[in-house]
Each structure stands twice: as structure tokens, then as C-alpha cells.
Design brief:
The chain is an alpha/beta fold. About 40% of the residues lie in helices and about 15% in strands. Bound molecules: pyridoxal-5'-phosphate (PLP).
Length: about 400
């Protein structure tokens, strides 16, 4: 028995060694986040270009103080660090209802449901809603959590080329009649390319082919649209998105996720969505913080404008230096190509106090390794120029 385990461990180690050689080894770094987009790593202070704290909320110490000051007694149930049960048993604390109420008000009184994370949402929603008589059409660059959801469910799924709605329409025309229901699933702002889907065009397609539209706004809620309600709202089609998913772990500086939908869909998910049913609910302290920052974030127009301007400037700097980039958002990729080359480039930035890492396959397609500059409203225009000076 022990021999078998030893052999197993040796095989795993050989596999890991191969990753190291290819420049694809992933490691866990110990990083201390500090306020205002700073981070400490190995005793050195960096400007953080690798967090998804887009609105600078996670690092906003004043905001944190204001939140805790609302509760003079640390013993209040509102600051409890565990819900100690599934939402379906005793874990559905009143903080859930309050947060879902805020969300519902932000999204024209549609129904809201909160989950433990965007990952939970994506591996749970489609497998609950789509059956073996259904088809799911998914953008090729959709996030791993969406892909895992496709794999976990019973529905057939096909992927269309990234943002290629002509191909998507061809698939719909060919296949729609053979399935009871067809689902279209896309990110709104794509996590690795920073480009955006034309959601109005997707809404047209979903109407024409009687499909259900699911949009993951993980990288656009808080950042885009009126009061930070996301890209679908910016494009004026939020009400036509059947299931609109947002996360709290990125722009909102908290943890958890939510979906906006019709009340019938909400009730169905409560009864069928396994990552909602079979997991411990979020702690009240987290739900209350999410509710607090969600409300604060609606008024952060200046931060949103600053974030947008920095994204535009950084892309301009990359292009001025003859470097490839893409998209049009707070996610600014510097496309390098090779894995080792990308790692070497990351090293150069790290040496100069810029915290940015190489993103390699399988996170992105082979040959498209990149540095993903993930901007935060807490960064300054000078930080962007510092990056430019290192190109
Ligand atoms: C598009 C997208 N959806 C979902 C998730 C997962 O969200 P969470 O971090 O809340 O699990 C991510 C996270 O990286 C993402 O990029």
C-alpha cells in the first residue's frame, strides 16, 4: 500500500517538474494586501496590478472602519463569522434577505438570489436549469467555472468562436428545432481579454430563436453601467437578460455572488441548484459587508471614470511601444505569446515594484500567454506612467 502511494507521489512530482520546465508551474504566494492598491510580498512593497479590486473597495480602510462602526457591539449576530448551516436549514440569516432586497431594487425589482461564489453560481445554475433535452451554446472564451458547469450538467453543449455571433446564429438556425430549450451563455466583459460582448445583439438572437440568455457579469458589475449595475444595463438590455450573474469578490471587494432573474427561476433554483443547497451559507458579516459596499458603490462614479481613463491610457502606452493588447476595459492584457518569455517579462515588472503575473495555458489558449494588468481605481495616473516607462 505504502509503495503504491510512493509511486503515485513520484508520478505527480514528475508531472510537476515538467510544468516547471515549461514555465507553467503555478505556486501559492504569500501576499499581504495593503490600502490604496499596495501589496507586500517577500518583504517588498508593490503597486498591485493583479487584483480584481477594480473599485478599490477591498483596500479602502476608511470604508471598512465605517462598516464596523455601525455595530458598536462585536457580539451582534450581524458580525457573526459563520452561518453554520445550509441556507435551506438554519443558515438563511436575515442578512440574506436584506442583500437580496438591495439587489432587487437595483435591478428593477426582479428577483435576486445570493450564492457563496461566482464559481458556485456557474457550476450550479446551468446544470439546474438545462436538461438532457436542451442545448447550451457557449462563447469559446467563457470562464473555467462556466465550462465546469457545462460539463456537470445533462444538457448537450457546443462552443461558438469568441464573440462570433454569425457562427452562433448559424448554430441556432440549424439546431434550435431539435431541442426543447436552448441556452446562450456568455461573459459580458471577458476576464482574460478584457473585451466586451454586444449583449444587445445576443438579446436579439435570443428573441429570434426563443432561447434563454445567461450572462456572467463578474468583471462588469460595480464597474460599468448606471450605478455600476453592469454592461447589460449600460447597453440598455439588463431586463432582457434571463439570468444575470454578478460576483462580490471582484469590484465589490467582498465575497459571494448573485443572480438576477424572474421569481419562478429563483424558486426553481432554490429547489434544484446543488451548490446552493449542499453548502454552508455565507456568514452574516460577509453578507452585511456586501450589502454595505453594494450601496456605496452605486455612487462611485468618479472611481468608475478614473478606472476607465487608466485603461484607455495603458492600452495607448502598450500600442505606442509596438506591443499587442486587446479589449476595452479595466482588464488590460499585454499579449506576449510564449510561456517562458511571458514569465521573463513579469520578472522585469516585479523587479521594478509592479505586481503583475504571467497568465499561461490552460487559463488562456496556447501561444497567447500574457501579462494581465488588472486595474484598480486605487491606482493613480502616475502608476500607469510607471508601467509605460518600463516597456
Ligand atoms: C467570468 C468569471 N465568472 C466567475 C468567476 C468566479 O467568481 P468567484 O471568484 O466569485 O468564484 C470568475 C473568477 O475569476 C470569473 O472570471
Amino acid at each position: 500500500m505504502e509503495q503504491a502511494i510512493d509511486n503515485f507521489a513520484a508520478e505527480l512530482a514528475a508531472d510537476t517538474a515538467q510544468l516547471r520546465e515549461a514555465g507553467r508551474l503555478r505556486i501559492l504566494r504569500e501576499i499581504v494586501p495593503a490600502s490604496n492598491a499596495a501589496a507586500e510580498w517577500n518583504g517588498k512593497i508593490f503597486r498591485n496590478f493583479s487584483s480584481n479590486d477594480y473599485m478599490g473597495i477591498a483596500g479602502d480602510v476608511e470604508l471598512r472602519r465605517e462598516f464596523y462602526a455601525q455595530y458598536p457591539d462585536a457580539g451582534t449576530p450581524e458580525l457573526a463569522q459563520s452561518s453554520a448551516s445550509s441556507r435551506l436549514l438554519t443558515g438563511n440569516t436575515p442578512a440574506y434577505a436584506r442583500l437580496e432586497q438591495t439587489l432587487s431594487e437595483l435591478y428593477h425589482h426582479r428577483s435576486a438570489l445570493v450564492f457563496n461564489s461566482g464559481y458556485h453560481a456557474n457550476i450550479g445554475i446551468l446544470p439546474a436549469l438545462a436538461t438532457s433535452r436542451d442545448l447550451i451554446l457557449s462563447d469559446k472564451l467563457n470562464h473555467a467555472s462556466i465550462i465546469d458547469g457545462l460539463r456537470l450538467g445533462d444538457a448537450e453543449f457546443k462552443r461558438y468562436r469568441h464573440l462570433d455571433f454569425e457562427q452562433l446564429e448559424k448554430m441556432l438556425a440549424e439546431k434550435r428545432a431539435a431541442y426543447r430549450r436552448v441556452f446562450l451563455v456568455t461573459e459580458s466583459v471577458f476576464s482574460m481579454d478584457g473585451d466586451a460582448a454586444d449583449l444587445a445583439a445576443l438579446v436579439e438572437l435570443k428573441r429570434k430563436y426563443d432561447a434563454v440568455l445567461v450572462v456572467d457579469e463578474a468583471h462588469s458589475v460595480g464597474v460599468r453601467g448606471p450605478s455600476g449595475t453592469g454592461l447589460a444595463a449600460e447597453q440598455g438590455v439588463a431586463d432582457a437578460v434571463d439570468v444575470l450573474i454578478g460576483t462580490f469578490g471582484k469590484a465589490f471587494g467582498s465575497t459571494g455572488a448573485f443572480a438576477i432573474m424572474a421569481p419562478e427561476v429563483r424558486e426553481y433554483l432554490i429547489n434544484h441548484m446543488r451548490p446552493l443547497i449542499f453548502t454552508t451559507g455565507l456568514p452574516p458579516v460577509v453578507l452585511n459587508w456586501s450589502n454595505f459596499v453594494l450601496k456605496k458603490c452605486t455612487a462611485m462614479e468618479e472611481r468608475r471614470a478614473h478606472l476607465r481613463a487608466m485603461g484607455t491610457r495603458l492600452r495607448e502606452l502598450f500600442r505606442e511601444h509596438g506591443m499587442a493588447t486587446c479589449g476595452d476595459s479595466q482588464i488590460v492584457p499585454l499579449l506576449v505569446g510564449g510561456d517562458l518569455e511571458t514569465c521573463a517579462m513579469a520578472e522585469r515588472f516585479l523587479e521594478h515594484g509592479i505586481l503583475v503575473f504571467a497568465i499561461r495555458p490552460p487559463t488562456v489558449p496556447r501561444g497567447t500567454s500574457r501579462l494581465r494588468f488588472s486595474l484598480s481605481a486605487a491606482l493613480s495616473d502616475d502608476d500607469i506612467e510607471t508601467v509605460g516607462a518600463l516597456l
